[in-house]
Amino acid sequence: KLASREFHPENTVIEISAACVDSGTVKIGGEDVVMMAGPCTVETEAQLMTAAQAVREAGAVILRGGAFKPSTSPYGFRGMGEEGLKLLTKARDEFGMAIVTEVLTPADVALVSEYADILQIGTRNMQNYMLLDEVGRGSKPIMLKRGMSATLEEWLLAAEYILAQGNPHVMLCERGIRTFEKATRNTMDISAIPLVKKLSHLPIIADPSQGTGRRDIVGAMSLAAIASGVDGLLIEVHPNPEEALKDGAQSLRIEQFQDLMPQAVMVAQAC
Ligand code: PEP
């Protein structure tokens, strides 16, 4: 299979342009652990710019932010749509960061690709095969989140859909799975990280924000993911989590992200 290490023994390295790094290119799947951070959802220009500036200054090189949001409740905030994408590109211009944002439907792939540097496929869409085919026909890097009830085999087969259409730039993202435990929103499957590394050459990212649903343990799980060999982290940061329109409980405060970054660098260097 195209995603398997047997087929492709070397690690896949995905290169993303980002003006904020000296070389102008961020490598995902290379030596460094790549920090992706920002708000769960783009809410206002001030919220996004404040978060982007703070995470950039702390060392993040890729800005996350949802413009098209999947929402468990139909009454939840569904995102700003194209307006949100425009704000993300404004932040990219201002801070030199690359952008990762979710695409929800095959019909939106062309539009979101005009703005994003990495297209995120969310947990709810991991087995949306029409969407996987559509992003596979393009050449934008894809971050494929693990379905909340998906086995590693199902997840890698979903990646296979994208690869089989000709797009080789696929990274995986462990974001927690559904278990009987209610103390966390999801159970962060740390064991998936070294296992995926054995099974596949694709880079793997960890999302401890969705993976736990609780900002008090996002830091610990970030460090655990780095120690387990992850290629990058995707972390939600909000200037004022109490006021967040979505997922405030799992969003780090800016100071928490600033505290976490040097610890992350230390663990990465030790590993
Ligand atoms: C997100 O990262 O914004 C998101 C909705 O994540 P997930 O698909 O993992 O729930």
Automatic annotation (TrEMBL):
On whether Transferase is a keyword of this UniProt record, the answer is yes
UniProt entry tagged with the keyword Transferase: yes
Query: DAHP synthetase I/KDSA domain location, by residue?
Result: 25-261
Residue ranges of coiled coil: none
List the keywords (alphabetical).
Transferase
Provide the protein name: 3-deoxy-7-phosphoheptulonate synthase
Q: Which residues of the full protein are shown?
A: 82 to 352 of 367
